[in-house]
Amino acid sequence: MRETPRPQGTVGDARSWPPQLRPGRAFAHTPGVSGSGTPHRSDGRPPQTPRGVRHTDQDGRPGTTPPVPGRPNARWGLRTQALCALLLLFGLLTWQVAGKGPLRRLDERFGLAARQTRILDTVAEFFADLGSVTIAVPVLAGVAGYVAWQARRTGAPRWWLPPLAATLAMAAVPLLVVPLKLLIDRPGPPGMAGHGFYPSGHTATAAVAYGAATLLMLPYLRGSAYTRREVVIGCLLLNATVGFGLVRRGYHWPLDVLGSWCLFGALLVVLSACLDRFGDEPGSSSPSSGRPAQPSP
Fold first, then answer.
1. Where does the Phosphatidic acid phosphatase type 2/haloperoxidase domain start and stop, copy by copy (predicted)?
2. pLDDT for 243-272, tens place per residue?
3. In the chain, N or C: fewer CB atoms in 10 Å?
């Protein structure tokens, strides 16, 4: 029976040296090999994802082009909406108070009725005093000092920025309140002499001092999100008691308090955005420095 002659390339398969590589279709993917000058497929078709079509980021690496949608953008959108809503409401209230509109007449009737409530005068006086400069400003100063000490202790490169931003927000209170009082020149409730009661300076002082102190402390609360939410609710209740004490004791009309909440609530929204943009998380590295924070002793 005649045997089929074996190819010479397969003769001597029992040799001791390893088989030599032979050019063929298997090396069509490797650049630089004869017959294939490009890293394309061996059948001549382009790859599924050509490199020339890929988008790169700012550093030239393959990826998505920033900004990537996410929670920071959503936070900025909510802040913008809140800022616009507060400023629009403040403009409406100011227009009604300055123009002696129907909302101002309703406000005065409600303010007179609020003075007839059965809350003890001493309790209402205590609530109103929480908005004084001698109480609210030292609270903010103490919290700002503590936050600055903690941030510097953990190695934050911009440890001074959050306390400075809160201090500037507190300094903006008289710069905004005094001109508005002189411009609108609203008379006070019965028993209060003079004019210039809108917006309420005590309400503004309490809102900025306690609100800024809360914003500074939130990153340092090691508890859960529930703890932070409770602190925010406590700040809101504290400001509500200050406003009620001022109206109950006859120091201000209700719209004086509400106007201050709107205007300086907008200021706190701006402060919150500044702290998120330029502040550093405790114990974390700064995005601009590129170096890790020093561990706390």
1. 176-276
2. 999 999 999 999 999 999 999 999 999 999
3. N
> Which residues are CB-contacts of 242 (< 8 A; sequence separation ≥ 6)?
127, 128, 130, 131, 202, 203, 206
CA neighbor of 227 nearest in space, from 218, 236, 235, 238? 218
Q: Read off the tokens for 25.
A: 């279709």
How far, rounded to the nearest angstrom, does the alpha carbon of residue 290 sit from its chain's CA centroid?
Answer: 21
**How far, in Å, CA of 179 to CA of 213, rounded?**
25
Nearest to 188 by CA among 261, 97, 101, 89: 97
> What DSSP character marks residue 115?
T
pLDDT tens, residue by residue, 180-228:
999 999 999 998 988 999 999 999 999 999 999 999 999 888 777 888 9
Is the C-alpha dihedral spanning 69, 74, 79, 82 positive or negative? positive
Closest C-alpha among 4, 2, 9, 283 to residue 153: 283
| Residue 251 to residue 192: CA distance in whole angstroms | 7
Do you know the residue count of the chain? Answer: 297
Phi, psi of 158, deg, nearest 5: -115, 50
